[in-house]
Amino acid sequence: MAGNLDAPEAQTPKAGHPEEHTGFYVKGAESLDWGMKNRLARIFNPKSRKALMMAIDHGYFEGPIAGLEQVDLSVAPLLSHVDALMLTRGMLRTSVPPWFRQSVVLRASAGPSILKELSNEHLAVDIQEAIRLNAAALAVGAFIGSEFETQTVLNLTRMVDLASPNGIPVLAVTATTDEDTPHDAKYFRMACRICAELGAQFVKTYYVAQGFETVTSSCPIPVVIAGGGKVPELEALTMAHRALGEGAAGVDMGRNIFQSEAPLAFVRALRAVVHDGEPPASAYKLYCSLKEGHTPQG
Ligand code: R5P
Fold first, then answer.
1. What pLDDT score was predicted for residue 60?
2. Mean pLDDT for the stretch of residues 282-288
3. pLDDT higher for 188 or 13?
4. 99-122 pLDDT, tens per residue?
5. Which of 11, 15, 132, 248 is at a distance of 20 to 30 A from 172, taking alpha carbons?
6. Which sign does the torsion angle of CA 60, 63, 64, 70 carry?
7. Is residue 1 assigned to a domain?
8. 254 CA to centre of ligand 1 in angstroms
9. Mean pLDDT score, 59-84
């Protein structure tokens, strides 16, 4: 079809009116490509810049732990309240409906069960499978200081090499099976920094009460915290609030959500902490009200 010379002319920006350049808000991601940024933005909320992730991948080395016996039943009511769900492909295909609109962070390393040396992991998901499953990110264990440390570091770098050309970010999941390693800020500083240096786009680690701000400040990519073992709800909300105040970019909690007395009430209270900066006491009040079945006013 011939062009229409009578069509309205394209407008050019007014002289002296600079074009807007908006920096990208996810730490360390400014120079990444559009697809990678878009996937990160599906995990880290553009308004709060934080992420509420729920980890339900425990079964890949522990089997059906409490709260995850029937994932399709226990997790379904929580799905719309989180930004991302971290899980294995098996549970995704069997137990999560494909109309799930939040992001999938796919567990991509595996190996031994809790009956063996956990750090002996290998990559367990092919990149084509991750694309098929529309993964927003891939999670790989990095067992810094453990028996198979080097192998897991190579899992991480290999996955970064496979995922990057496809615009898929990699979440490094720090862990250690070495009982003699103190789980303190010094260890987590080293572990998180190693993961960032090796190309991960974000890292998951544990919160420590002393010096956590040095873990986040010395890590050039976002740090999200695991919840660890189940603690009382107020304690878990307090830990999340402190971690965020000390530079964490979000939480990736499992047991403290799905093993809560009232998982839906808890995840909503946690959301208020993560995205609205709600102090722990008022978030706990919200949790109690929702647990009792009321919607608090004001
Ligand atoms: C660790 O390797 C897995 O990702 C865990 O499933 C996850 O970190 C545990 O989350 P939480 O400690 O909050 O139960």
1. 92
2. 98
3. 188
4. 999 999 999 999 999 999 899 999
5. 132
6. positive
7. no
8. 6
9. 94
Range of the structural domain that residue 172 is part of: 34-229+248-255
- CA 288, CA 184: separation in Å to the nearest integer? 32
Q: Among residues 74, 25, 43, 30, which one has the least CA distance to residue 251?
A: 43
Identify whether 4 is part of a domain.
Answer: no
In a domain, 26, yes or no: no
- Give mean pLDDT, residues 131-144: 97
Look at ligand 1, atom 6, and give the residue with the nearest C-alpha: 58
Q: Quick check: is 13 in a domain?
A: no
Q: Into how many domains does the chain fold?
A: 1
Assessment of whether the complete model's pTM goes beyond 0.70: yes
CATH number of the structural domain spanning residue 64: 3.20.20.70
Catalytic residue among 27, 37, 50, 204: 204
The pLDDT, as a whole number, for residue 298 is 46
